Amino acid sequence: GESVGLHLPTLSVQEGDNSIINCAYSNSASDYFIWYKQESGKGPQFIIDIRSNMDKRQGQRVTVLLNKTVKHLSLQIAATQPGDSAVYFCAENSGGSNYKLTFGKGTLLTVNP
Amino acid sequence: DAGVTQSPTHLIKTRGQHVTLRCSPISGHKSVSWYQQVLGQGPQFIFQYYEKEERGRGNFPDRFSARQFPNYSSELNVNALLLGDSALYLCASSFQGTIGGNTIYFGEGSWLTVV
Q: What is the mean pLDDT of each run of 10 residues along chain A (113 residues)?
């Protein structure tokens, strides 16, 4: 079956540290991946995406790394701030779907001041 | 510019009742998708509509239906509500109907509680 899983359900970091959130996906045919941030009581907020023809993509304070060999995705957040505290989801267009995203369960990131 | 807007934000229904949830996509976006998010889990795909046509359907019973209007807004209907339908219902919009380099934006969701 198709699934997107996370290695760490919770992550606690100190303000100013770098955070790394990991995600494993099982469908090797997936070719598009997205990271979303979801704060309590709100909808998912787009952070960054990456296509399978890339290994790395950088945004503002965030970097996504894709390792297709081991089917692993990670989100790196530089200089983590209290406002980064949220649940982070990775999502994939499972099997190369043109219309459907498959989400993992999420990782709760807590930033301690 | 307004993002994806959904209504109502919260509602409570009784088992067996029917509910209609509404979504307005970002201006210029032609694709709308619906997802269900149960507490503590990631969103689950329900439907995608593009140019008023259903392009995809997730593993949900026929009690769930949706449609997209000429102005690209959308409704999600759920009949014969069950307790297990209690969830956050998310609407997402994108400019095109295909995933892949086509940023998908979510609304804040409609919280449905079935009692």
A: 55 96 90 94 95 95 96 96 96 85 92 93
